[in-house]
Design brief:
The structure is a single chain. The chain is built from ten helices and four strands. The chain has about 220 residues and is of the alpha+beta class. Strands 1-2-4-3 form a four-stranded antiparallel beta sheet. Strand 1 and strand 2 form a beta hairpin.
């Protein structure tokens, strides 16, 4: 079956669907018209008309079923399911299951970072300059890791250590009034942000986490 894609997903023409389900294309169209309120464009189907349809026909000139078509519907996996449900024949359900298992299956799309690292690691296997390539991968991963900020657990721990440090200073009589306590909270957060060049304590770099904890443990008011 010729693969057709529309907006990042695989689709089928009415004729392809009819051939697979063992039905006449007119029956597919009739089922659609009778249950049109159940079909949502963009979810169950796409409509091609005008210039889009002309380009589609031009890419499939050997398909005689498209010659006189003025409106073309392209059915998604969910649209194919609704048609199988309308026909409700053993063949339709068997073919639908096969379509889901083979035609509509899409490979997982890697993130841009994973694509780059995976590509470089694949090159490593066939490259004569292994040392140089390994260094590039290491440098890339290090640079990416240096951009990561604290995760939720680390940020929570950092905040807890700040509160613990303030309480320690007060318990030793280094700071006295409640107003001073509020001022010290403001001061330690402000100085922490400056020390680690972060807009907020949550945006401290993950690579600086251990140093930030030590900094808090040693902090004293000026």
């Amino acid at each position: 079956m010729q693969v057709i894609e529309r907006k990042g997903q695989r689709v089928l023409t009415t004729n392809q669907l009819a051939i697979g389900y063992g039905a006449d294309p007119k029956i597919i169209n009739r089922n659609f018209q009778r249950n049109v309120e159940r079909f949502v464009e963009g979810k169950h189907y796409f409509t091609l008309t005008g210039e889009e349809l002309r380009k589609f026909k031009g890419s499939r000139q050997i398909d005689p079923t498209l010659k006189y078509t003025s409106v073309l519907y392209l059915w998604t996996e969910k649209g194919a399911f609704l048609h199988a449900k309308s026909l409700n024949t053993n063949k339709a359900w068997d073919v639908y299951d096969k379509l889901v298992d083979s035609y509509f299956v899409k490979a997982k799309v890697l993130s841009e970072k994973d694509q780059l690292i995976a590509s470089m690691k694949l090159t490593l296997e066939n490259s004569k300059e292994l040392g140089e390539m390994k260094e590039k991968v290491h440098t890339l991963e290090k640079r990416l890791n240096n951009e990561l900020t604290l995760n939720h657990g680390q940020a929570t721990t950092l905040n807890h250590e700040i509160k613990k440090r303030i309480e320690q200073l007060f318990s030793h009589g280094i700071m006295g009034s409640l107003e001073t306590k509020r001022q010290m909270y403001s001061k330690i957060y402000s100085q922490l942000r400056r020390a680690f060049q972060a807009p907020t304590y949550r945006e401290v770099k993950r690579t600086d986490y251990t140093d930030a904890i030590r900094w808090i443990e040693a902090w004293r008011p000026m």
